Amino acid sequence: MSRNDLMSEIDALSAKLTQAKESVTRRFIGQNQVVDLVFSALLCGGHALLVGLPGMGKTRLVDAMSTVMGLQGARVQFTPDLMPADILGSEVLETAVDGTRSFRFIQGPVFCQLLLADEINRASPRTQSALLQAMQEKSVTIAGQAHKLTPPFHVLATQNPLEQEGTYPLPEAQLDRFLVQVDVEYPDRDTERAILLATTGTQDGDVHAVLTADELIDAQALIRKMPVGDSVVELILDLVRACRPDTDEASNLVSTRVAWGPGPRAAQALMLMVRARALLDGRLAPSVQDVVDLAGPVLIHRMALTFAARAEGHSLNALIAQVAQDRLQKRAAA
């Protein structure tokens, strides 16, 4: 593909994404950063973990995204008694008219294109692990038989950050499957006023399909064709490697406060996310500032503070931001 063709495709897709964002924000008012991160995760072909208190509009956002992106959506309410078969499906024994018996596979809700895993940490680890293969390999295995999922396949999971009674923390392997963690925080006063007026009347925000599933797949392919400058690549490597304790590249801040750091999948996620951010902004290539801005959402669920750092009240978000700024300044000075 020539540079002119690439520019033309990026411009056309950027215009459509602008329409899609406008449609979503009619239902999910304000919180532009949250909307951008979820759009970016879908454009990268990944999954997102939405962390926020009840009543913040997480489910409403996912429902709007499903409609706007033209995806077949499904919802699973995770509870302690939820079983893997309730998500993946199961085989049932059927008797034919002639008396012969055979097993027939009945698909579960995971056979969709956009799965809302509501309050994912309320299910047992056994049930949580049922999503591992689906999220990574886009297929599930039932009774030794592999079943492919319909592309594109995305999981948007929600989690309450405060209420931990009756919940099961997501294991590191599960967290690493999420491309990005999206923190849904309280809106400001003006945004909350707009929400109040828009959602308590007789009419709700109009949401309509802007893209199709095939167009999303094409967009995901286009993302991987976008050029990335050496300075962006090197900053991604600097940042990810600097966040790993017990390595030569880790700063003293990381070595003393971080228990474990991000793996190579974090660098891959950051590389894709900065491209998606540039695309959403209508730019042809990402910048080093994109790396700094997206470091927190991409890395925070792939790292953990030590017990001592948590006891002292340190924040992982603040630590990541500090490391990112330090690495950016060193790159600029070099």
UniProtKB/TrEMBL annotation:
Keyword Translocase: no
Zinc in keyword set: no
ATPase AAA-3 domain ranges (all copies): 47-180
Signal peptide: none
InterPro entries tied to this protein: ATPase_AAA-3, CbbQ/NirQ/NorQ/GpvN, ChlI/MoxR_AAA_lid, P-loop_NTPase
GO MF term (any one): ATP hydrolysis activity
Superkingdom: Bacteria
Coiled-coil intervals: none
Protein keywords: ATP-binding, Nucleotide-binding
Domain annotation ChlI/MoxR AAA lid: ranges: 253-319
CDD domains named among the record's database cross-references: AAA
Pfam families according to UniProt: AAA_3, AAA_lid_2
Classification via Gene3D superfamilies: Magnesium chelatase subunit I, C-Terminal domain, P-loop containing nucleotide triphosphate hydrolases
PANTHER family recorded: MAGNESIUM-CHELATASE SUBUNIT CHLD, MOXR FAMILY PROTEIN
Similarity field: Belongs to the MoxR family.
Protein name (record): MoxR-like ATPase
